[in-house]
Amino acid sequence: MKKVAILGGGPAGALAAERLAQSGLRTILIDDKLAWEKPCGGGLTYRAYSQYPFLLDNNTPKRMVSETYLSAPNAGRVKMSLTKPMVIYSRFDLNNMLLGRAEKAGAQLEKVRVNEILRQGRGWALRTRHGSIDADFCVVATGARNPLREVGTQWSASDTMHALGYYVPSNQPHIDVQFLAGLEGYIWVFPRCGHLSVGICGKGEPAQSLRARLERYMLEHDIPWKGAQFYAHMLPALDTRSWKRNRLSGDGWMAVGDAGGLVDPVTGEGLYYAMRSADLASQVLLDEAHAPLAKPAAYRAVIEHDFAKDLYLGSLIARRLFTGNFLLGSVPGRMVQFVRRSPRFRELMQDIFAGTQTYEDLSGRLLRNLNGTLQEVLMSFFFRRILPEPSKP
To answer: How far apart are alpha carbons 189 and 192 in whole angstroms?
Structure first.
C-alpha cells in the first residue's frame, strides 16, 4: 500500500490524514469545503482531550466550561459543577486546526468534490471535476450526508436524528441542557467564543416541530433568535438492529466518524468517536501484521472491541432514558431531582458529561448506588421539610 485517499476533511478525516502522513504513507485528503462551521454545540469531553492532549494544548480559540444547568418539566432547574470541564470550539476553528496539523505532517489537501469512486483492480479511481485521482485504499470520512452510496454506513429514517439551532451573538459562562416532555432528545445552549450555539436534537419528530419547540424555549428564556444565523443538520442515531448490520468497512475502504454511523445514540456526541475511529483506522492501515485484504475485517473488530459495543448498548436505552418513567415521574425529571439531592448520582452525571461513564457499566453502577442514592434523596427531602430556612440578613 503506497497511497491512501481520505474522503472528507472533518475531524475524523483530518486526524486520519495526520496519522498516516506522519508515518510516511503518501496521503491525500479530498474535501470540497475543508474547514467549515458544522451545525452542533462543538463540545469536547474530558475523554477526548485527555486521550488526545493536542485538543487542549493549542492556540485555537476555545472555551473551558465548568458549570452546567439541567432542566426538565415539573422538576425545575439544577446547577451541576463539571469536575472535568468541557472544551467548546467553533467547528470551523477546530477543523481548521486539525487540517493544519495534517498538512504539516505531510498530507496533501485537495479542495474539490469527489463525484464518483470506481474500484479498479486492487485500487480506486476517484472522479472529480478536475479529472481522476488514484489511490490504493480509501478512508471514508464524508460525514452523515455521504453522497458515495457504495461505501460507508447505510441507514433509514429510523437511524437518524435532526439537529438544528441558531448562532446567537451573546455570552454566558455555563452550559444549559433542557429535557422536553415526550422528546427523545434535548435542547442545548453552549457558550462559544463570541456567540452561543443554541440548538435542539431529536429523534422521531419532524424538523419543523423541533424548530418550534426550540424557538418557544428561546422566547421563554429571552434568547433572541430573529436575525440569528440558523443551522440544521442530520445526525446518525443508529437503531439497535442497525448496529448489528452496520456497514463499517469493505473491500479497500473503511468508514470513520459519522460516515460509519459512529455517534452516541443517547447524547448525539460524535467528536470523540470521529477522532477515535480515525486513530484506530490509521493504526490498522499501518499495521503490517494485517494483509491489505484483511484490514477491513481487522478494523471492524477493533472498533467493536473499543467502543461500538457500548454505542449499541446506548441504543437499547435511549428512548427509555428520554421518554420513560421512574417512581411515578419522568426519567429526565427524576434525573434532575436526583442531581439536586444525591451526591452519588451527581458524580454519575458528572462522569457522563466527562465521557468516562460507559453504558456497559451504567446499569451496574445505578444498581450498586440505588439504595444510597434513594437514601440521600429521602434524607435531603426530609431535612429540607423539617429544618427552618436560614434567616436572611
So the answer is: 10
SS3 83: strand
Grid look-up 411515578 returns 328
Phi (first) and psi of residue 38, to 5 degrees:
-70, 140
Residue with cell 469531553: 45
The neighbour count for residue 387, using CB atoms within 10 Å, is 8
The three-point CA angle 320-325-327 to 5° equals 140
Instruction: Round to whole Å and give the CA distance between 185 and 306.
Output: 25
Order across the sheet with 229-236: list the strands. 43-44, 76-88, 63-72, 175-179, 184-191, 196-203, 160-168, 229-236
Give the pLDDT score at 364: 81
For residue 391, the model assigns a pLDDT of 45
- In the predicted model, residues of the chain with pLDDT beneath 50 are 381-393
pLDDT, one tens digit per residue, over 169-210 is 999 999 999 999 999 999 999 999 989 999 999 999 999 999
Of the candidates 97, 90, 85, 18, the residue with the CA atom closest to the CA atom of residue 50: 85
Please enumerate in sequence order all residues whose Cβ is within 8 A of that of 338, keeping only pairs 6 or more positions apart, or say none. Answer: 345, 346, 373, 377
Burial class (CB in 10 A: 0-12, 13-18, 19+), 24: exposed
CA distance 4 to 259: 17
Instruction: Give the pLDDT score at 374.
Output: 56
* pLDDT (tens digit per residue) in 158-178: 899 999 999 999 999 999 999
Q: 161 near 193, Cβ under 8 Å?
A: no
